[in-house]
Amino acid sequence: MDRLFLRVFLKLFACLLLAAILTRVLIIPRVNEYVVRNIENTLAPQVALAAELLTEQGARRHDADAVLERLSQRIGTPFALLPSSDVHLEAGALERLDRGEVVLAWRGQFKGPTFFFARLAGTEQLLRLGPVKIEH
């Protein structure tokens, strides 16, 4: 009777361990991809519009500061202009910025600040939105 219990217990434990490993390897990465995509789709249009507005402002730095301040107040999250050399992103994210896309810099849930970046067309400057507080 004890052997039967031990075999059943070990098989149950092995099944649970296998389910946990499969969840960690297959399910969680896909969930994280969907979360990142949804967050990007939510705020990317606002960041792209702000980058376009700042590009139209051109080299007038005092105007850009005023626009950034207004945007920060309206959205409730700080905007900043940074030289692209000051921002350290993965190679894939830099390629997306070069194509004119808005990039989300997110290390994962509960792992630090979340930022959005967009390149100002024709410049080496990046528009940064964040840190954005992600709640769900």
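Next protein, fold it too.
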Amino acid sequence: MDLRFYARDKESVRVYSYDSGTGAENGGLDEEQKAPFPLPPAKYSQWSPDGRHLATYDGQDGVKVATYAEGSDTATLQAISGAPKGTQGLMWSCLGGNLVITAPAVKGSQDPNVAIVSVGADGVFTTSFSFIHPKL
């Protein structure tokens, strides 16, 4: 596989793989059909720089991360607890080990609107810390 990418539309988030060496009738483009794909529609989606994690957010289920194990073509899906309500931003650290989740600050609220989520050696995401940033 040369390239993995996602397409987000009104109905779902789909992941496709492109392999220039296959020469198949579809030009080497294949939609991944293995669970958990396709995912429900999402407002925001973001690949990690290393291509192993796809973070998505929708208003009902919150933030989820689909993770591909090293050398695997199958992903596992993990819901992220502690993500701010009303998420409007998903940003990965440069090495893909941390996910920054942001939401607009609500005047007078004590709920954090920024969360930093880290992936452990076991592949489990946990909220490292969260805080209020009043100017978001």
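About the second fold: The chain is about 0% helix and 45% strand.
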